[in-house]
Design a protein that fits this description.
CATH class of the largest domain: Mainly Beta
Order of helices and strands: HHEHEEEEEEHEHHHHHHHHH
Number of helices: 13
Number of domains: 2
CATH topology of the largest domain: Jelly Rolls
Strand content: 15-25%
């Protein structure tokens, strides 16, 4: 009996070991959401005067090593002790979590969610998320004679590179558009993404010049709701639960939201999801079922019906015509 018991223990041990190895082999979910690209620059882009050198989005989880230099070119890699110096301008937006930033001209500063900061050419800097929170970062690198002139005239204070945009759904939407355009890489996309980046800089300029919602608590709550909806494109949203978290009365919220956007909260969110579907149809190889699932539709038939109602064509036809 002792021999049988020992044999069972040995089998159980091997079984647990195999399960452990299997779990280690499963790719971590975070790699699915991270994306970045470094772009080559031709004379066409240089003549344009404003061109993009890199774009990316990354979610860094608590206690995760940062940065992962194996994923980036040598001239962009760095570590906390040494920091780095880059050529060109960069914009980094932290949409979740918090961390720290420091440069040759800026004292160590805590960076919280909703903060953008610029990196300037030739200026030593370093930044990283806090280990207990991680963060979610979006970045754009850009350069060119027009970019240089614009930065000198509008965002020239390299000693204070921060802009607190808060929960700005317009900014987040443009960052999503930017990544979708780079993924698609259709003819002339370099100029398209340059235009999107200029829109982003326009938003930052407006925010830095005037905080329109600073003395309007209702407007701040609507902005927060729009941001939450923009970040929930892969699922339906319980609007009443969302409003309770703001907090705000639902009737007042619905009226204020429609005054701000021209749409009801549910219609606004539906249009965001359908627009996201358009991007997935043109920039990925996902089938129609997968596109429906990633935009929060349980029924592909219902998804196709709503898509055709909004765009005049079926998802399949839309993909064919835009690829």
């Amino acid at each position: 009996m002792f021999a049988l018991a020992n044999k069972n223990i040995e089998i159980a041990f091997h079984l647990y070991f195999l399960i452990f190895l299997f779990l280690l082999s499963i790719p971590r979910k975070k790699s699915m959401s991270n994306y970045f690209k470094y772009l080559n620059t031709s004379q066409v882009e240089e003549k344009w005067g404003f061109y993009i050198t890199t774009v990316g989005h990354s979610r860094i989880y608590p206690n995760e090593n940062y940065p992962n230099n194996e994923e980036h070119p040598q001239n962009h890699s760095f570590n906390w002790n040494k920091g780095r110096i880059l050529n060109g301008y960069y914009l980094v937006f932290i949409s979740n979590g918090q961390g720290i930033f420091e440069s040759a001209l800026t004292e160590p500063t805590t960076v919280t969610a909703g903060t953008c900061f610029f990196l300037y050419p030739g200026i030593w800097h370093r930044y990283k998320p806090h280990s207990n929170s991680g963060w979610e970062e979006h970045w754009i690198g850009f350069n060119g004679y027009y970019a240089e002139e614009l930065m000198k005239r509008v965002f020239s204070d390299s000693t204070n590179p921060f802009i607190n945009v808060g929960v700005n759904s317009d900014l987040l939407s443009l960052l999503h558009q930017l990544l979708a355009a780079v993924r698609t890489s259709s003819a002339g996309y370099n100029q398209v993404i340059a235009g999107i980046t200029l829109q982003i800089l326009g938003i930052l300029n407006a925010v830095s010049m005037q905080q329109e919602d600073e003395h309007d608590p209702t407007a701040r709550l609507i902005s927060k709701a729009k941001f939450s909806l923009e970040e929930s494109l892969d699922k339906t949203v319980d609007m009443k639960k969302l409003v309770r978290e703001l907090p705000m009365g639902y009737s007042k919220f619905r009226k204020a939201f429609k005054q701000s956007t021209g749409e009801s909260p549910n219609q606004y969110h539906l249009n965001l999801r359908l627009n996201r579907a358009k991007g997935l149809l043109t920039s990925t190889a996902l089938n129609i079922n997968e596109v429906a699932s990633q935009t929060g539709f349980d029924s592909v038939f219902y998804f196709s019906k709503l898509f055709k109602k909004k765009n005049g064509v079926s998802p399949k036809y839309y993909r064919t015509e835009n690829n």
